[in-house]
């Protein structure tokens, strides 16, 4: 049994937000922190769980402080889990030099490069953290589990959802990286963490190791029903620069997938906090169905 | 006419949050920044205005990022104005050494000490900023104006409201400093900014210059009707340490004053963001009456 150390606790909405840390097996023994919001109602009946995966440069605190998720989560009796975005202190050469790779930029995958061997946020989120939370007996019901995220974390939420049929009731994302095997942040992450080089031509099919983490590819090959909500701001510079490519998902016209483009909104938490209550309500509908 | 320089603009809720800066006469010519949220509806009809005064160490960005005010303000068609908490760069000796005095700690008064002569946040907020905003023709209706704030900013909101009968429709505060002439932050601020020494005995009547900024004293001597809402968390360390003293207000049992104490909540923005939609709705009721 993992020793979960309480770092802090704050009353918020109709529950408590508590920060814990623990040494993570997935991250080669490095200590990782996460925040969990547990509504009071969990004391009498287990509550469903929504994971929030944050974007580049963020931590487990960013969306807790700026995301505006708690009042709706409290009202809907849903627990929220905010993991960190990467290992911390892995001592990989250069890991703190570039905000797009290394610390704060784990990309929610399982690294296969020897150099980045601690970078296994996928394993942490899909396997270890749910186990740790179940063992801690906090009143969370992982048979009702959904996932959301922003930007890199939107990629994380969608790809983790699509790679694990039956695990989650629903997925949503704010300004997600939808087609990482063909866009710069993804190519950079896959080239390094997976140690699989880019194809010689831009038009060539990306390597299969990359496609395993590409939500638009995963969706294309997904056979079951899906419940996906995606919001993107048209004023988002990363959208304009082709980092997000929601068309790669919306053009598939899949049943159960809603992609909404919003005039003027940018990539910031002002965008997220505008729509986050709707996302919590979207998940509540599926978690409580 | 003041030259208002746009620093940034973000779409949020049903409007835009814009940061401006300008050289402030009140602050001896120092440049000050503020954020203003203007709902889209201001384009067709002028909208009422709610000022938010932040607490010690904060800036014009803190509540904009963490306060959770925008969705309700957008829904209610209310503009929000977030001033800074002190002058910046006044070059007073020691102003950056103590988070409780100087930079980030302007205490919303008009300094009468020669040393702190730029520290005139009261004048900025009550007189200059409304004038600057009116001149800029942004669609704000200052005949419908209310004020709120947190901690030091809660003191600011309540004292400014009570010192200016007829200016504001309503005031509210999160964990405000209610009796600053008898509690440490206030005594420290008044002693320094007003250059009026503390009385020789703790039980003596505080100096009249101090009482002019003491909300509990101002309320006692207020003759008109008031609309005041105050929320305080019982888990707030500053409440427990006697910095806030809401009893000095609630014990007066004044009509139109509601003081609510909440189990477990602390001094953080988790507390504020839980109740901020209710505060916006409280002000909306009075602004749109």
Automatic annotation (TrEMBL), chains A, B:
Primary subcellular site in the record, as a coarse category? cytoplasm
UniProt keyword annotation of Acetylation present: no
The record's annotation in SUPFAM superfamilies points to: alpha/beta-Hydrolases (SSF53474)
Q: Which InterPro entries match?
A: AB_hydrolase_fold, Esterase-like, S-formylglutathione_hydrol
Q: Which residues form the active site?
A: 151, 236, 267
Q: What is its EC number?
A: 3.1.2.12
- Swiss-Prot/TrEMBL keywords: Cytoplasm, Hydrolase, Serine esterase
What is a GO molecular function of this protein? carboxylic ester hydrolase activity
Protein's cellular compartments: Cytoplasm
Pfam families reported for this sequence:
Esterase
Q: Which GO terms describe its biological process?
A: formaldehyde catabolic process
Any one cellular-component term (Gene Ontology): cytosol
According to UniProt, the reaction catalysed is: S-formylglutathione + H2O = formate + glutathione + H(+)
Task: Give the family from UniProt.
Answer: Belongs to the esterase D family.
Entry function: Serine hydrolase involved in the detoxification of formaldehyde.
Question: This chain belongs to which protein, by name?
Answer: S-formylglutathione hydrolase
Q: Which organism is it from?
A: Kwoniella dendrophila CBS 6074
Lineage of the organism: Eukaryota, Fungi, Dikarya, Basidiomycota, Agaricomycotina
């Amino acid at each position: 049994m993992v020793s979960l150390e309480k770092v802090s606790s704050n009353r918020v909405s109709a529950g408590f937000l508590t920060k814990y840390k623990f040494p993570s097996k997935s991250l080669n023994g490095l200590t990782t922190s996460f925040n969990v919001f547990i509504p009071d109602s969990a004391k009498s009946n287990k509550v469903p769980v929504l994971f929030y995966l944050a974007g580049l440069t963020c931590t487990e605190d960013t969306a807790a402080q700026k995301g505006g998720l708690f009042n709706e989560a409290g009202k809907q009796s849903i627990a929220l889990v905010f993991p960190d975005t990467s290992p911390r202190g892995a001592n990989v050469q250069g890991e703190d030099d570039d905000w797009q790779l290394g610390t704060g930029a784990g990309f929610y995958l399982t690294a296969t490069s020897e150099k980045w061997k601690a970078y296994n946020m996928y394993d942490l989120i899909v396997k270890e953290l749910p186990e740790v939370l179940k063992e801690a007996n906090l009143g969370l019901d992982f048979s009702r589990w959904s996932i959301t995220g922003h930007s890199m974390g939107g990629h994380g939420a969608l790809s983790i959802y699509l790679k694990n049929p039956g695990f989650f009731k629903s997925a949503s994302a704010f300004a997600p990286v939808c087609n990482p095997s063909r866009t710069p942040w993804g190519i950079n992450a896959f080239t390094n963490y997976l140690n699989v080089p880019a194809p010689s031509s831009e038009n060539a099919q990306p390597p299969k190791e990359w496609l395993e983490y590409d939500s638009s590819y995963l969706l294309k090959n997904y056979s079951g029903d899906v419940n996906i909500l995606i919001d993107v701001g048209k004023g988002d510079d990363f959208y304009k620069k082709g980092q997000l490519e929601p068309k790669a998902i919306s053009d598939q016209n899949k049943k159960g997938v809603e992609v909404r483009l919003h005039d003027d909104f940018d990539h910031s938490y002002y965008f997220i906090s505008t729509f986050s209550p709707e996302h919590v309500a979207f998940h509540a509908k599926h978690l409580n169905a």
